[in-house]
Amino acid sequence: MQEPSWHRIGPVEQLADKELQQLLIGKLAIALTYRDGTFAAISGVCNHVGGPLGEGRLSDDGYVVCPWHHWQFERSTGDARPGIPAAVPRHEVKVENGEVFINLTPATKRVHAPHPAHSLAREIKREPGPLRVVGISTTAMNKQFPRYSTSEDLLEVALDHAGTQGAQAKLIRLNSLAFRACEGYYSKSARACTWPCSITQMDNTDELSEVYEALVFWADVVLISTSIRWGAPSSLYFKMIERMNCIQNQITTHDRVLIRNKVAGFVITGGQDNIQAVAGQMMMFFGELGFTFPQFPFVAHSRGWSAEDMENNIAQVKSDQDLRDGTKALSDRCLQLAAGLVACGEGTTTIERGGRKAHMPS
Description:
This protein is α/β, with parallel strands linked by helices. It folds into two domains: 6-103, 3-layer Sandwich (Rieske Iron-sulfur Protein), CATH 2.102.10; 119-343, 3-Layer(aba) Sandwich (Rossmann fold), CATH 3.40.50. The protein is 28% helix and 21% strand. The protein is built from nine helices and 15 strands. The protein has helices spanning 12-15, 150-164, 198-202, 209-218, 235-243, 245-254, 275-289, 310-319, 321-343, and strands at residues 6-11, 20-25, 28-35, 38-43, 57-58, 63-65, 72-74, 90-91, 93-96, 99-103, 132-137, 168-173, 221-227, 263-270, 298-302. A hairpin with a 2-residue loop joins strand 9 and strand 10 (99-103).
């Protein structure tokens, strides 16, 4: 048994002002609580990904709630909620002559609840086989009464053509997936935004895992289609890419590039004209994830700002063979580039980050 190591942390009247606070004693983080006239202390480091427990909140029934992902530990024992075999270390506290002391030697050990690793946490390795193309349609519509989508129609043209070239192809309709919007864990701390996504880890009904699986592990080519909505991509597109911050953030927090030797292309259509801005936004984002683009990386169609007769727009897309041939050509360019990249091997796994968004924050 280790010898006690008592450390004075301050007067009672000062420390009793806060119900919960995070103390840093050397390199040791402590979550100190005060309730009903008594102090208690547990480790200030959460079991999950090291969140600062003392910066969270104290529940009505005495559990310290982590501010990052809401894991909970009883303030005086360090135990997790009943039924969860986990705990953070507990530290003894005593009061002498109006001063509070903490034993820096923990009274209990940290206990991690056993659980299998998430499937998305596995090693990134391209499985042998033909080139693989995933199309992601970001069109939003009424699921009960679906409508025709010009962007999704052209995306299917690209995927069908890829199949004729010997590639495996599949379509993911975001509109068919039930997934939560990003809840801003990155806004708390870069390290609170995890891979796999914190939401995906905590909610096994969240279906964006299908997109993560396709982008990081399965596909060599990713084709994204969107409509133009008031000069911007669709709302579902933004809902998806906000959840992809966890992919880019691995570069920041773990010096780990998840997107390796993969190609992206884009299909953009709409009744309004703002194609360059929409394409530019999409290319910048997917470039920051690590995707490579072919020469001429998108196809697009718009009849302009004043064209409010959407019926004619739909008819034109349905009948425009040049537009369809251009979409097939985009598919070819992506496949040709992907073939060369796959032949090069694994691809970049780390990157020099000076001057980039992914530079480690100081």
